[in-house]
């Protein structure tokens, strides 16, 4: 039976600054030069990156945004709720999981520059997922939300922002 300690040990997962555990398991060798990227990027980027990501019950991935699209993949455990605040302020909640009859999805996309957070669905002991980013992830493209600033931008989502920021 899979468990959080077993997954952390087996995949050598490390604490992630936004919450949970992660391990980068792929970074493309080829590089996209900065001159070929949109202006929101500052420097060259790998074509693509991928990580394992693990959240256990009671933990969450705090609201943050990155400069690239991010594709989420479900692997094991219970469903993961992904909350996306789109640039226009519209909130979307995606249920990542394997019960397609209950509206869960095996994959989901978070568009670049959108604020997003995630947490295991109620009743989930943990959610073990993966994230693929293109152009590849770089911590220079990562911004962790500040509760007060994000709440001012999107007061209609204040309760969720308050709960899912650090």
How would you describe the overall organization of this protein?
This protein has 166 residues and is mostly beta strands. The chain has one domain: Jelly Rolls, CATH 2.60.120.10. The chain contains three helices and 13 strands; from the N terminus they run αβββββββββββββαα. The protein has helices spanning 4-10, 147-153, 158-163; strands at 14-15, 21-27, 31-32, 45-46, 49-56, 61-65, 69-77, 80-85, 91-96, 107-110, 115-120, 126-134, 143-144. The protein has a six-stranded antiparallel beta sheet with strand order 1-2-5-12-7-10. It has a five-stranded antiparallel beta sheet with strand order 9-8-11-6-13, with no helix packed on it. Strand 1 (14-15) and strand 2 (21-27) form a beta hairpin. It is globular, with a radius of gyration of 16 Å. It starts with a helix and ends with a helix. The relative contact order is 0.23.
């Amino acid at each position: 039976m899979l468990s959080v300690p077993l997954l952390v040990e087996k995949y050598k997962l490390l604490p992630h600054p936004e919450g949970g555990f992660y391990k980068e398991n792929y970074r493309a060798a080829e590089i996209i030069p900065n001159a070929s990227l949109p202006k929101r990027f500052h420097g060259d980027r790998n074509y693509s990156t991928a990580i394992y990501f693990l959240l256990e019950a009671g933990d969450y991935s705090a609201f943050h945004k990155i400069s690239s699209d991010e594709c989420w993949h479900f692997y094991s455990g219970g469903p993961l709720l992904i909350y996306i605040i789109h640039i226009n302020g519209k909130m979307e909640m995606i249920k990542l999981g394997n019960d397609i009859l209950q509206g869960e999805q095996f994959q989901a996309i978070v568009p670049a520059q959108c604020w997003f957070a995630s947490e295991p669905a109620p009743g989930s002991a943990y959610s073990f997922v993966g994230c693929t980013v293109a152009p590849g992830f770089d911590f220079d493209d990562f911004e962790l939300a500040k509760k007060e600033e994000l709440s001012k931008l999107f007061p209609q989502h204040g309760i969720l922002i308050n709960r899912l920021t650090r």
